[in-house]
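To: structure subgroup
Subject: Chain for Friday's discussion

All,

I'm putting the inputs and outputs inline so they're searchable in the archive.
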Amino acid sequence: MAKKVLIGAVSGILLVAAVIGVVAGVRRSQTTSSGGGDVGLSSTSRYVSAFCQPTQYQDTCERTLSKVSNSTAPNEIIQMAINATKDAIRSKFDVPDKILKDIPSLAPNLPQRNLSMLQDALTDCKKLLEDTIDFLDATYVLSNNMEDLVLRSNDVITWMTSMNLQVSSCLDGIEHPAVHQAMIKELGNSTELRSNALTMVARASKVFQAFGIQLNTGADSRRRLLTHDETVYDRDSEGYPTWLSTTDRKLLAQDMVKPNVVVAKDGSGNFKTINDALKAMPAAYPGRYVIYVKAGVYNEKVLIDKKKINIFMYGDGSKKTIVTGNANYKAGVKTDQTASFAVQAPGFICKHMGFRNTAGPEGHQAVAFRINADLAVFFKCRFDGYQDTLYVQSGRHFFRNCVVSGTIDFIFGGGASVLQNCLIIVRRPMDNQFSAVTAAAGDLPDENSAIVIHNSRIRPDQRLFPDRFRLKTYLGRPWKAYAKTVVMETEIGDLIQPEGWKEWDGQPEHCKTAYYAEFQNRGPGADTRARVRWPAFHVIQRQEAQKFTVSNLLYTHGGDWIALAGAPQIKGFRRA
């Protein structure tokens, strides 16, 4: 039943919503179906070897699959790995509470500010660990059938990436060294199982191909069964990602859309605050729920939780409808909790709104907007802050005709995020600081995560302009070992240092394992002759750059989700 709901319920954005919506059913009944016909079951041991060979922890992989029998189909092998990962993570749900009790011995005599932040981090860890199960269940459902596993490979790899990033976010929030190490130790082999399961899912198509497994992929049979990063997908004439519906395209194209509710500070709407409007949203609302936020400055901390899927929120303009806050790290708030506006629900679309964090450069990490959800679109929005302005935590995101401003690492995270036709403004940092446009995350090589800046402009603001050569600015730095960042067909101002990229402090190895690339940029800062000589840095050609276009990085088999949201887009390159 769960599989039927997943495959048949919806297309485009609603596909992912349906998957997440049926995970409760998956937990009650996890039946399997090979879906691939006779695939030569006597080859089971060779399947195990093929799946385990590319994993980082081969011995763990082989032990996990030691109970595979001759009647086990290849997709069921993947499901065994997923179930083992779920069991391991579930067994760790009580770890944050356990470590909380051990804080007096692990971290004695902490100042109250540090203690509060540590307690908040461990509380967040409990929720983040629980959220991983949603992504694992969604992947399990889809892997009931080998054809679905291949056709929706980008979906399942994205979900498994998000699963891994939830745990990574948990660890990122625990800054005390002894407590951080205690959490890593307590997570135990669940770390290895997460890594292996992601690799197995990402390489499934290649394994099926190697064994000559014939799959009925319908209209998509013309596509070769290749690994995730080798596949090149089709695109429509408007350049939208493949998951935006016609209805959602119209929503973005229209200046005014009939809303379900109106938010207005002056009392002329249904609610005076965005949070009140969200609280009143019906549970399991069918279709797109539209919230119109009238002009005004809304000083409230907004969180759209994971159950409030498929919201379309629009305002009167990015400089007229503004959500603001000033929570910051210096004041004792964890980075992710500083966000003025945060989204945890898939299918979020936003238009004509502005988001600010006014803490200033002295507040250090201070997020204006955080997105930890899949299939999100932002059209003509504005994100203003200083350090850590826009947190693309996980999922697939498309930003079109937006403005993003900041100083240090002001576009950061592990999402698969494309910023297209955007204006990126570097603000003036403090005199002892540098600026970096991006700080991509990425813990594992097979993750579907990258920050892509396409056909945009990178410029200094007026206050920085006179000091733009003295206060150094870089295109980015690798936050995590497998960070991926690509800048292509973009106008780069002269504020960017000739070397282009900067090492993450104390992590020189990231300069070997990460992936940083530039393709056909223009402007005085686009000259690559003096760029860093890292193994991680590449000046790429068109074929390589194709992997990072909207139609490839943000692809989902279920439909053109960005086009459905109504945002114009360039699916391939600006120049043919």
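Points worth raising on Friday:
Residues 1-42, 219-237 have pLDDT under 50 and may be disordered.
The two ends are 45 Å apart (CA to CA).

D.
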